[in-house]
Design goal:
By secondary structure, the protein is an alpha/beta fold. It has 29 helices and 17 strands. It has an eight-stranded mixed sheet with strand order 12-11-10-13-14-15-16-17, sandwiched between helices. It has a six-stranded mixed sheet with strand order 1-2-3-4-6-9, sandwiched between helices. Helix 13 links the parallel strand 10 and strand 11. The longest helix has 21 residues. It is globular, with a radius of gyration of 28 Å. The two termini are 39 Å apart. It binds (S)-3-Hydroxyhexanoyl-CoA. (S)-3-Hydroxyhexanoyl-CoA binds next to strand 5, helix 3 and helix 12. (S)-3-Hydroxyhexanoyl-CoA (3H9) binds next to strand 5, helix 3 and helix 12.
């Protein structure tokens, strides 16, 4: 008998148990084991019905994603599921945890399905650039009709047990927590009632009802904007539609063809990389798994601005009380007002209930005095980027906070060690860099100072998880991982416009690559004055940063969305950037003043200069150990800056483009464009020389 699937009989029920931690994925051993156990059940003359149940935390959570891209080993999952459906003894799937992807497809191949009230089901293949490839696109619509199947399959949403019952996906919901007992009782009842096998493939009433429906057209139209640039959502619609136009067996064949198209697409590679990378970043190299974690049961925040308020919401959402301190009562009142408005907007959209708005608001208190931080476990400073002010704040925190409290800064660029030097406890000081809007963006860049203790590092990673963020541990340097690379891209994009490109040409190249917005639309969102004041500071410190047209914009008061004009202009109540001829004039004036003769710049040059400069900087970041792995950089960019997940992040993208191609181009730009940003990274040179990838590191 297989080690991961077992068969035993309890009364009249033959029980097939999968035990393949962590999530009972359908790897080769499980597929083989399922067939063997089914055979045993069929030949066991005392078994009147069969029960499929899983040990551990969950029902089967899908195909084994680690097997993708490798040669498929028989038996194929589709064959296993068909064999279950063909069984002449009724088979019941008993679901706890999550039945996902191939897991739900397996359950749909069973004749009856019961789930614990806490369970969820879904077909999330689309999130991996795939479609359900083991009959899911043909069986699910037979139970739910076209609309619900399309909704589930094109979004990958998880559906709670009660809703799954309502949609016809499962037959019963059970209270209780022991899935084996629940399943056995249900199967015994079916035997008592002499229920027959009932094959989903033979259920056709909803297929007939929705045949020729407009719903497919509607979904394709919706996806054109919602799934811009993506491949598999459209294939999902094609596959579901096949359930309505073809007989079951032929529909399955069509599903298979479409599945293979998705499997071979580079987007699948990128999304699977992103899936595992998101999980890997939580395992910080050099930080022992059993490092003790401090309890964070209350939090203090300094600064009631947009950032401080957004950060506070994360904790209130997680049920953790927060105290916000600011210097002026008006700032606190305004900050609280914005938070309430945000919550009320969520309630209007039905994302939370009005009662939850009040519960969360009740968790947020304010104060004008640091004394309010006496007992908190974590303080996050979120004031503007000024080292002197931050040092003053940390020296005060050092006096007020209890021993063991974690003192964090939300700085996006500044030196954590220098901030820590203002305290007597640098081991408790760390960076926690949230991304704006802080209540929405999933990234939390946790910055370790040279003296930050392991316990503090482990705690801030745990805090990220608790508040629903993806935490990435990075080292201390100017701009850390994300902004260090972004500033390189920003400078290059600005230089391209100095030389002859238009801002909208640069932005289009980036949005065509899959970014939700281009460099300059993003500058308008963040505020043109932000970059301008950073450049001013750096010039003051003696850095050679040439004048550019963005400085002129700032000096003319075009500060971005907040002044309704920046690189683009904006109309009241609309965030859509509109090209402004005045900016073209301003740029032309700047070029004239500087004696620059504009030239035609190709989209390819824009792509190479904006993207390769980031890859080169990313390689330097790796060389210096600021990021532990290329995948940490990828996650920072996917969750902090909207890098298209289907391209896997900048370093994974670089591997797909070819490290050698990038290195050769970087060298060429070093000679032609010049500047420190084009000095080839030693790591990039080494990888190119050895014909290796970042993924090989
Ligand atoms: C599919 O089914 C295709 C078919 O239609 C057709 C085939 C022909 N495989 O997320 P967690 C690992 S496509 C392998 O931290 P949670 C994960 O890497 C698949 N490994 O836990 C991690 O490993 P480690 C469709 C998997 O409790 C560990 O399990 N299914 C798989 O926060 C724990 O994961 C999906 O897309 C897998 N399928 O969340 C479901 N799933 O400990 C994907 C997880 O080494 N999975 N691992 O870091 C999930 O959404 C979440 O993992 C789940 C648990 C909700 C299940």
């Amino acid at each position: 008998m297989s080690e991961v699937v077992s068969y035993n009989r309890e009364g009249a029920i033959g029980v097939i148990t999968v035990n393949y931690p962590p999530v009972n994925a359908l790897g080769h051993a499980v597929r083989t084991g399922l067939l063997e156990a089914l055979k045993q059940g069929q030949t066991d003359s005392d078994a009147k019905a069969l029960l499929l149940v899983c040990d551990g935390r969950t029902f089967v959570a899908g195909a084994d994603i680690r097997e993708f891209g490798k040669p498929m080993q028989e038996p194929a999952l589709g064959t296993v599921i068909d064999t279950f459906e063909d069984s002449d003894k009724p088979v019941v799937a008993a679901i706890h945890g999550t039945a996902l992807g191939g897991g739900l497809e397996l359950a749909l191949g069973c004749h009856y399905r019961i789930a614990l009230a806490s369970a969820k089901v879904g077909l999330p293949e689309v999130k991996l650039g795939l479609l359900p490839g083991a009959g899911g696109t043909q069986r699910l619509p037979r139970l739910t009709g076209a609309r619900k199947a399309l909704e589930m399959i094109t979004t990958g949403e998880f559906v709670k047990a009660e809703a799954a019952l309502e949609a016809g996906i499962i037959d019963a919901v059970a209270q209780g927590d022991n899935i084996r007992t629940v399943g056995l009782e249900y199967a015994a009842k079916l035997v008592d009632e002499d229920k027959p096998v009932r094959r989903v493939r033979d259920i056709n009433d909803k297929i007939t009802a929705d045949r020729g429906s407009e719903v497919f057209k509607e979904f394709r139209k919706g996806l054109a904007s919602k799934a811009r640039g993506l491949f598999s959502p459209f294939k999902c619609v094609d596959a579901v539609e096949a359930a309505f136009t073809l007989p079951f067996e032929e529909g399955k064949k069509r599903e298979r063809e479409l599945f293979m198209e998705c499997m071979e697409s580079p987007q699948r590679d990128g999304l699977v990389h992103a899936f595992f990378a998101e999980r890997e970043v939580s395992k910080v190299p050099g930080l022992a798994k059993d490092t003790p974690v401090r309890d964070v049961a209350s939090v203090g925040i300094i600064g009631a601005g947009t950032m401080g308020g957004g950060i506070a919401m994360n904790f209130a959402n997680a049920g953790i009380p927060v105290t916000i301190v600011d210097v002026k009562q008006e700032a606190l009142d305004k900050g609280l007002g914005v938070i309430r408005k945000n919550y009320e907007n969520s309630a209007k959209k039905g994302r939370i209930t009005p009662a939850q708005v009040e519960e969360r608001m009740a968790l947020i208190t304010t104060s004008l005095s640091y004394d309010a931080f006496k007992d908190v476990d974590l303080v996050i400073e979120a004031v503007f980027e000024n080292m002197d002010i931050k040092k003053q704040i940390f020296s005060q925190l050092d006096k007020v906070c209890k021993p063991g409290a974690i003192l964090a800064s939300n700085t996006s660029t500044l030196d954590i060690d220098e901030i820590a030097s203002a305290t007597s406890r640098p081991e408790d000081v760390v960076g926690m860099h949230f991304f704006s809007p802080a209540n929405v963006m999933k990234l939390l860049e946790n910055v370790r100072g040279s003296k930050t203790s392991d316990e503090v590092k482990a705690t801030v990673m745990a805090v990220a998880k608790k508040i629903g963020k993806v935490g990435v541990m990075v080292g201390n340097c100017y701009g850390f991982v994300g902004n260090r690379m972004l500033h390189r891209r920003g400078a290059e994009a600005t230089a391209l416009v100095n030389e002859g490109a238009s801002p909208q040409q640069v932005d289009k190249v980036l949005t065509d690559l899959g970014f939700p917005m281009g460099q300059f639309a993003m500058s308008d969102l963040a505020g043109i004055d932000v970059g301008y004041s950073i450049r001013k500071e750096r010039r003051k410190a003696g850095e050679d940063i040439p004048a550019n047209w963005m400085d002129t914009l700032a000096e003319e008061g075009r500060l971005g969305q907040k002044t309704m004009a920046g690189v683009y202009k904006y109309e009241e109540g609309n965030r859509k950037p509109v090209v402004d001829p005045k900016v073209d004039e301003l740029i032309a004036g700047f070029r004239k003043e500087q004696g620059i003769e504009p030239r035609d710049i190709t989209d390819q040059e824009i792509l190479e200069r904006c993207m390769y400069v980031m890859v080169n900087e990313g390689a330097k970041i790796l060389e210096e150990g600021i990021a532990a792995r290329a995948l940490d950089i990828d996650i920072v960019w996917i969750y902090g800056y909207g890098f298209p997940a289907y391209r896997g992040g900048p370093m994974f993208w670089a591997d797909q483009v070819g490290v050698k191609t990038i290195y050769d181009t970087v060298k060429r730009f070093h000679d032609t464009v010049g500047g420190d940003q084009w000095k080839p990274s030693a790591l990039l040179a080494k990888l190119a020389g050895e014909d290796k990838k970042f993924g090989d590191l």
